[in-house]
Structures are given as C-alpha cells and as structure tokens.
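seq:
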Amino acid sequence: MKSFKGYEGKTKQEEKPQTAEELTRKLASAYNGKSNADIFRSILSEAEKSKRAGTLSNEELETFFRTFSPMLDASQSRKLRAVIDKLKEI
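struct:
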C-alpha cells in the first residue's frame, strides 16, 4: 500500500449494529446443513461464554428466543426455552 490517504476503515454498514433479522439470516446461513443437536450445542456454548463474560443479558436471551422460536416446532421450542432458562441462571 502506497498511502493511507484513501483508507476509510470499516464502512458505515459494518459499524452499525445488526438487527435481529440480519443476525437470524446470518445464523441460519452458518448452520445450514447442521443437525439440531449441533446447533443447540453451539448456541449454548457461545451464549454461556457471553453470559459469563457479562456481555449477554437476560433480556437479550429473551429476544433471541422470541426471534427463533417461531421457526421451530413445539418440541424444539421447548428445548430452546429450557436452554434459555438455564442460561439465565448463570
């Protein structure tokens, strides 16, 4: 690179927070083809790390549940509710 003059860093699009819809699409794409068990394990693992680090609130967990539960069948929704309730205890 010859000069930093033209460098603007991250675009405004990259800097703005993701909406729940954008995050949902990104997660759905990332987990395409994975088993339900793999998805739940991954979600639980990442959420537990964030909860212990203090970067994930109970309200954010509820928002996640409200966003994803309509895409699940009754059994999956109950499992996700159990996971969310367990994470809230951390």
